[in-house]
Amino acid sequence: MASGVFSVLDTETTGLFPGGHDRIAEIAIVRMNRDGEVLDRWETLVNPQRDLGKQSLHGIRSCDLLGAPTFSDLAAELAWRLSGTVLVAHNLSFDARFLDAEFRRAGMPVPGHFLEHGLCTMRMSHQYLHGAGRSLQDCCDSFGIELLEAHSAAGDAAATAVLLSRYMELDEQNPEWDLRLGRAAQSAWIKASPGGRIIPVRRAAADAEPARHFLNRLTTRLPQFTGTEAQDDYLAILDRALMDRYLSAHEEQQLISLAAELGLDRAGALELHELYFQQLVRAAWADGTLTEEELLDLKTVAGLLGLGQQSVQGALRPPADIELATAEAVPSAGKLAPGSLVVLTGDMSRARAQIEEDLRAAGYVPHGAITKKVSLLVAADPDSLSGKAKKARDYGIPVVSEDYLWDTLLA
C-alpha cells in the first residue's frame, strides 16, 4: 500500500489455535512511519462463522457481529493494506499463525517472507526492557504507556504502536529499522487498491470495565523469560489459555498439538509448566505475603498444569532467592554512581530536554524506560500511580520527587 510503513496489528480470536476451528473475530491495524508518526488506523469486527468462544476474554458480543464481514469478505482489502509494509505485533507468532490460516482459508495466501520478517515487540523487550515480562501491559508500564481498552484489537494495536516507537527512540541509530522497511517495500505483492472497500463494523462500547481477576494481575508482571523462542511461544499461549482459569478439552488437545509443533516432548512441556507455575509463585510473593485468594488460585493453576501436590506445598513459602518488596530507600547524596540510569516521569518545572542535559553534565544517563538496570525514577509526583512508577516499585527502584533532583542529585 505504501513504502516505509510499519503495520502494527492485533487480533482478537475465538480461541488460541488456528489449526482447528478457531477464527479471527476482530482485527486492527495502526500504520506508522519510521518517525513514529501514526498514518492511519483501521479496525473491524470479523464474523468468525462460529461461536465466539470465551467472550469474557475479548468482550465481543454476538450482537456486535451483526453486519460484520467475514474474513473472506475483507481478505483483498486487508492484503492490500499489509502489502509492502513491515508486520508488527506483540507476540507476533500468535497473530501470524491466525493470519496465515485465515488467508489460506480465503484462497489468498500471503507470501511467507511477510510473516517471517515481521517484528515482535514481546521478543524485542528482551533487548530493550531488561527484566520485563511477556505481557503487553508489563512492557507498556516500563515506558508509562497507557493501555486503553486492553484485549480489544484497536486498544492493543494502538499501545503496541507506541511501544514500537519507544523502542526506536531508544535505538534511533540502528540501521535495521530502515533496512526492514526498505526490504518490505520492495517485496510488495499487491500494487493496486481493491475495487470495492469494506465498511468496518466496530464493537459497541462496553457498559463497564470487566473485572480483572487475580491470575490476570499476575500474568502482567511475570518475570522475563530467557529460554528459546519455541519455549517463549508456549508460555505465551499458556498466559492466554489460563486467563480464565479453565482449560477445555479442546484447549488441552491443542496445547498438545502446539507442543509437538514446537518440538516439545512431554517432559519438556511439564518442565515449562513447572517453570510457569514458579513464575506465578514469585509474582504472588513479590509483596511479601501470600493471601488465601492467591493460594487458592495457585492450587487451581497447578491442577490445570498437571503439577503435583509438591509444587503447591512449595508455594506456601517464598522462594529463597526472591527479592521481596520493601520500602523504597532513597539514595543519599553522592551515593548514585556516575553512569547510573535515571528516568523522568510527569510534568516537571523545567523542560524535559534541559533536565536531561543537566543529568548528562552531572555524569548520569537519562533513560526512557524503566528496566532493572535503572537506578532512580524522578517523578513530578512521587506518589504517582503511573505505569512507570508502578514498574519502578515492582523492581525496588527508588522513586523520588523533583526536589531531590535539584537539592541532591544536581546540587
TrEMBL record:
Q: Keyword annotations for this protein?
A: Exonuclease, Hydrolase, Nuclease
CDD domains, from UniProt? DEDDh
Q: Which residues form a coiled coil?
A: none
User: Which stretch is the leader sequence?
Assistant: none
* Protein known as: DNA polymerase III subunit epsilon
A GO biological process held by the record: DNA replication proofreading
Q: Which domain of life is it from?
A: Bacteria
Per the UniProt record, the source organism is: Glutamicibacter soli
> One GO cellular component from the entry?
cytosol
Task: Cite the BRCT domain residue spans from the record.
Answer: 332-411
- PROSITE patterns reported in the protein's UniProt record: BRCT (PS50172)
> Lineage of the native species?
Bacteria, Bacillati, Actinomycetota, Actinomycetes, Micrococcales
A single MF term (Gene Ontology): nucleic acid binding
